Amino acid sequence: MAHFFLHTLIGQVILTVLEALAVLVPLLLGVAYLTLAERKVMAAMQLRKGPNVNGPFGVLQAFADAIKMMTKETVIPSGANRFLFLFAPFLTFSLAMTAWAVIPTNDGWAVADINVGVLYLLAISSLGVYGVLIAGWASNSKYAFLGGLRAAAQMVSYEVSIGLVIVSVLLAVGSLNLNDIVLAQRHVWFCLPMFPMFIIFFISALAETNRAPFDLPEGESELVAGFFVEYSALAFGLFFLGEYANMFLMSGMVSILFLGGWLPPIGIAPFTWIPGPLWLIAKILFCLFVFIWVRATFPRYRYDQLMRLGWKVFLPLSLVWMVLTAGFLMATGLLPQGGAS
Amino acid sequence: MMTQIVFYVFATVLILSAGMVVSARNPVHSVLFLILAFFNAAGLFLVAGAEFLAMILVIVYVGAVAVLFLFVVMMLDVRFAQMREGLQRYAPFGAAVGLVLLAELALAFSHWRVAQDIASVPHVVAAPGRTNTAALGDVLYTHYVFLFESCGLVLLVAMIGAIVLTLRERPMGRRQNIERQHERTAADTLAMMTVPLGQGVTANGGFRRPERSYYIASVPGSYGVTAEPVPQATPAHETQRGGHGADNHGGLAQ
Question: Known InterPro entries for this protein (chain A) (predicted)?
Answer without folding.
Answer: NADH_UbQ_OxRdtase_su1/FPO (IPR001694), NADH_UbQ_OxRdtase_su1_CS (IPR018086)
